[in-house]
Amino acid sequence: MKQLFFLLWIFLLPNMVRAQLIHVVRSSIMRPIDPPRKTSCKFSDGIGKTVTVTKYIPGLDYNVYSKRLINAANQGNAKAQFALWYLYYHGQGVAVDDETATKYLKKAANNGLAPALYQLGICYLDGIGILTDNEQAAKCFEQSASKGNMYAQTYLAWCYLNGIGVTKNRSKAMQLYKSAADKGIANAQCSMGLAYDKGEDLPYNKDKSMHYFLLSANQGNAQAQYELARLYYNRGGASECNTKAFEYFKKSADNGFAPALLWVGECYNLGIGTSINQYNAFEYFKKSASSGDGHGMFECYLCLKNGNGTNVDATEAWRYLNKSASVNNCFAMHFLGYAYFTGDGVTKNYDIAFKLFSDAAKGGCFFSDEYMGICYEAGLGVKQDIVKAIMWFEKAAKWPLRDQENIIKHLEILKKQNGG
User: Fold this and answer.
1) How large is the average pLDDT for residues 263-292?
2) Which of 28-32, 51-55, 171-175, 257-261 shows the lowest per-residue confidence on average (mean pLDDT)?
3) Which of 53, 73, 232, 313 suits 249 as a labelling partner, its CA being 20 to 30 A distant?
4) At what angle do helices 206-217 and 186-198 cross, to 10 degrees?
């Protein structure tokens, strides 16, 4: 068999060609992100700011844990009950105690306080201080939404979208999302943008999708910022689009949306919308890898193997490669297969190599196609099968690899030798 020399495309393809081959994937409509527990924000400045009750108690400070506050709560003051939930939940002036927090929250909810019903729904959903009960969660969201709480309505929409505690009804979910979106709820606006962009629950509409993404992103919604970046990035080519893509990827990443971390790294690595900065690229790839992103791990492998933005470290590179392959990143599986195929840093093992090439090809790694052909032609790690070898070489010949010309020539020879 004529050896076909594999030239690593990830290193050798021009940056803009590589950029066109890497496609940013749309995210899904997500559950609303709940804010973290706080240790400094006051109840009256945050969640309790708009809570009013009919009974006014002179001098009562809802921000401070006190006997007066407890007495007010025990006397049925809904705002005091809600405030005690806040203080116990966030550990402000008292130790964190989810069960006690939820006890007071239920009292406030039973008194009809819409924000308390909303928060109680989240507690039922996540089992915070109470047993998990999706049906009760949905009921709380519905009751809160009926009182005008649009955050609860967004949660209720998510429940209907996924059949959480209610019978799945995606049409109703869209109605609820739209109502909340039009009243300024950023998560609902992002969800509407995704629905119009995907074109399943709502008719595809690029303009409406962009409209809702912009509304949400301008409120700081990190997922919407990512989606805007995706739309600009996947347009490709135009410098203005690339600049916008980088801007929104960066905002999204800085606002905590983990999938954006990889693409900020790619922008720095390839000079998309910003100047090439391999040090910054490696820093974002590390953050992406730490978030569990397999491709972020793979990019860390490439950086460490080649000294891009960091010092060469073969041991650490190998660790990242194996970790990336373990979470089924198709590129990592291919490179690991190549290591076993050539005996680069490991004992040569064609059986393992073929299995990795096969899994990589199934996952969409197109340059594994060539090595599937090589393995089938020579019977390396698999029973020899010339028909399958030709099939895989034909697939490989369609891709813009540096070895494309040699693949096509070898394919022609193989066909002639076997009566093709």
Assistant:
1) 96
2) 51-55
3) 313
4) 160
Q: What is the pTM of this model?
A: 0.85
How much is the mean pLDDT over the chain?
90
Residue 344 and residue 333: Cα distance in Å, rounded? 14
Mean pLDDT, residues 254-258 taken together: 94
Token pair recorded at residue 345: 């840093």
CA 333, CA 70: separation in Å to the nearest integer? 59
- Burial class of residue 308 (count of CB atoms within 10 Å of its CB; 0-12, 13-18, 19+): middle
Query: Each residue of 127-138: b (16+ CB within 10 Å) or e?
Result: ebbbeebeebbb
pLDDT in tens, 88-119: 999 999 999 999 999 999 999 999 999 999 99
Q: Using pLDDT thresholds of 50, 70 and 90, give the confidence band for residue 411.
A: confident
**What does the alpha-carbon distance between residue 262 and residue 281 come to, in Å, rounded to a whole number?**
9
> How far is residue 383's CA from residue 95's CA, in Å, rounded to a whole number?
66
- Quote the tokens at residue 411: 């394919």
Which residue in 392, 399, 393 sits closest to 412, CA to CA? 393
Asked if the model's pLDDT at residue 130 lies above 50, the reply is: yes
